[in-house]
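Review session, final week

We close the course with one last complete record, chosen because it touches almost every idea we covered. It is Endonuclease I, a protein from Desulfuromonas soudanensis with 269 residues. Go through it on your own first, then we will talk.
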Amino acid sequence: MLTPTPLFRAGRNEETLIAHRTSLAFLVLALLLATPSFSASTPGNTSNSSFNKAKKTLLRDVYADHLRTFYCDSGFDSKGRVTHSSGYRAKKEGKRARRLEWEHIVPAQAFGQSFTEWRQGDPACVDRKGKSFKGRNCAEKMNLTYRYMQADMHNLVPAIGEVNGLRSNYSFAMIPGEKRRFGSCDMEIESKKAEPPPEVRGDIARTYFYMEAAYPGRGIIGNKCRKMFEAWNKGDPVDAWECERSQKVAVLQGNGNPFVGGACQEAGL
């Protein structure tokens, strides 16, 4: 009776096979760690927990030579006064229409709700009148990780106060039709959704990818939005200013956005 010849002989051959498999496993892991989409390679902000400090730093050290708002390309000065030379038409002529504000691309509420202090409060979250509070104020008071996320400069952009207020904490989406309510600014806000201008959609997608990787488990990107962001990332590639801004923030904050940095390197920017 013929005895089948084993593919690998026991002993040294088996040890060699195991060694090769182990080496392959480590190689795959190394490649994953080198990939920007792998969260372990994407540290978040751990240098500044002050939202106010982040806003001042951005105005002084990042945008000093690029005084343009993110969505509508309106100008602003070092004191936060906005001018609408780009054709922006205010929905309401009030103070916020001419005031600069710093917008969270990923809304604070979107990641804030993942914190217990935001949802349920904390025994220490009591005001001077003895009334308990929760939400943003409690999360900011009690949770350092929340404060780091709130102050992450990769997620902050200058915006017209009115647009920031109207966008609120709405998710981004594609809105049917072209109902322009802000003059030449192609920003649409309707039915608790916001559709940004085409020229910043990639910037937004890469910010969402970064926030999801840097702060895993916070529900940054839902399944419905992922494909849209992937399309935005491809349709609106990085430009010189996005690369410059990202590099400045990386130096100031101590961590980069690899979804921007890697694309800038590939583009030679």
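Two points worth writing down before the exam:
The longest strand covers residues 100-104.
Confidence is low (pLDDT under 50) at residues 1-39.
Good luck, everyone.
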